[in-house]
Amino acid sequence: MAGGIYIGSTAGYSGKNMVVMGIGLRLQKEGFNVGYMKPVGAMPMDIDGKLGDEDAHFVQEVLGLEEDPTDVTPVVVTQDFKVKAFSGQCDQLMPDIVRAYQKLAEKRDAMVVAGSGSMYSGRYCQLDGVNVVRELGIKCVVIDRLQKELNYDYLVVLKDTLGDALAGVILNDIPPNFMPEVDGLIKPFLEHNDVKVVGVIPKDPLMGAIKVGDLAERLGGKIISAHNKADKVVENFLIGTMQVENFMTHFRKNKNSAVIVGGDRSDVQLVALEGNCPCLVLTGNLYPNDIILTRSEVLSIPIIVVRDDTYTVAKKMEAILSRHKLRAVIKIKQGAQLVSSSIDFEYLKEQMGL
């Protein structure tokens, strides 16, 4: 029977997929036959006529696995499911998860099990991470992604709750200026409370980046110039609503930022183009003048025109850049590499009984 590990996190969008794929690919490279499961899925998707989970399907593709989606994700949360669950009709689901896990683990050396949301998501139907880990009888590693600060209290409470089942934690997205605090304060504090830090993954701007072409699609806009540069990468964005002088100061500091600006602000548009921004996003469904269009073609900087106003586009942009799924191959390679070089794999394998 395979040695298993459950990868959970303190919140949604913490990098579970990246870590799961990183661990899976690394174990495969070391010659292990790796299986994958995501017991509870929240992104319903039709996979050859069966209900599966979009993330789980993607991870399976990356790991080169082809298992029945109903085994990989026995529980997919739909609106219908929630209605049933809130009225108490979901006591029979955990046995399905355990059965599916045993079936998948039978022919594997190692099983990587992915959580959904946080470790307590799904508590309304007893399918939270804490419960799943206990029922499957495997160890778990919890990711805490730095967002303003780390959830060190949450991690210690999880240790109180899970005891030995918590094999350790991974701190993700740590920028260079925060490393001294992690090494000097947070790691010693966690270790003092018996919480093993299995890895610290540094912040990597590439991981949050998105291509101009994908961005246009997600914003519901269209690219009107320099179409051949739609695969340029955007890491950040700036809003060009201020005076040109102020804008120039901000722009110098944030080189790889797409610039969101009203279609009528040709002064800011020109500064952004001459400063070589990755792309311009023009709001209010206004097309630029000919000078701007010509410069954009000459400098090969795409312009996206969108219908929404600047504020709405900025809100959307923020959501897209913080949640942009690891879809591009370079990112998977980059992410797997990051995970590989940042995690104590010998310890992890020991915890999985490999």
Automatic annotation (TrEMBL):
Top-level division of the source organism's lineage: Bacteria
Looking up InterPro entries in the UniProt record yields:
CRAL-TRIO_dom, DRTGG, P-loop_NTPase, Phos_Acetyltrans/Butyryltrans, Ser_kin/Pase_Hpr-like_N_sf
Gene3D superfamilies linked? HprK N-terminal domain-like, P-loop containing nucleotide triphosphate hydrolases
Q: Which residues form the CRAL-TRIO domain?
A: 50-227
Q: Which PANTHER family match?
A: PHOSPHATE ACETYLTRANSFERASE
Listed under subunit, the entry gives: Homohexamer.
Q: What is this protein called?
A: CRAL-TRIO domain-containing protein
Give the organism the record lists.
Answer: Oceanidesulfovibrio indonesiensis
Its lineage reads:
Bacteria, Pseudomonadati, Thermodesulfobacteriota, Desulfovibrionia, Desulfovibrionales
